[in-house]
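Example 3.2
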Amino acid sequence: MRFYRLMGSDFQILDGEKITHVPLPGPLAPGVYAHLVGGERYAAIGNSRATAEGLRYVPEEAHGLWLYDQQEGQLLTVPIKVTKEDCFTADSIMGPGNTLYFSDGNSFWRWRLGERQGEKLVRFQQAKGAPMGLGISPEGRYLSYYKYRSGNKVLHLYDLDTGEVRDTKCSIFHYHWLDETSVVYTKSSGVKALDIKTGRCTTILRGYRDILRWGSAPDILAPFEREKEVWEEMDLLGISGGRLWFSLRLCCPREAALRSGSEREPFHHGIWSSAVNGSQPRFHFECPQISSSSSGPVWTGDCLTWSDSAGAYLYDGRQLREFFGWKPLVGYPDF
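Structure, written as tokens:
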């Protein structure tokens, strides 16, 4: 597990006890975002040109998107014309053939590593909402993203073969590609799958009552089984080891606690997984308390990581580790 921070124009990567220093063009704006693309090899580093309110804009050369090749120890500048309005955050992903797809906040771009210039694929009307949450299908045909509509995240697709932009009209919370034609996502209570060919949505897990029917963790969920009113939230964390990983949060009104003679209402916030068809749900551990202002959490395959203004955190179900002043350097599904 790796972490990053910015000290002036010195971008630093923490891996175990080793710190790698990557000099960036400076001075940089305070808000620098980084994540892994192309497996563990590249760290995508981006920022926006505007600094904190009342300060000047950073120089042009200190604004943009970079790739740090951790294998070769080389910093690559993504070759596109950058405007002062551009914002390079976490929306970049590696596709087949060492092709980087990314957003500047208004447009999608494509850059094949080694080429002299990036290619703009499509520009969006800002008035209709900026694209966010960039993903790519396993075989590399579709870019996926969401746009806000009436406060909801609505999943969209961009066909790289035809240039068609499609509104799936599917309201989501978090999503991941399951295969080339299926997207799995969470929305309020339940995990669902969207067939992008037919537009048909199917339910994988309807909620905690589906888990109970499988006979999973009855001691944990029993306090909720007899309640008529249960507030429930499921959040998709990722796909790892051929299983869906999700968090499950349950609580009951205060009246339920009074009926049971307890001093507090029933509450559960746990990390779970299931087969991709929703079968064999399994409880792993109770989730630690995470502030609503935190970024994440993200499931890394063996632990949970998130960050807040103080630093980054790792939790494996047994030990909570704190990395003050750092942020998690995590990857998103790419190929």
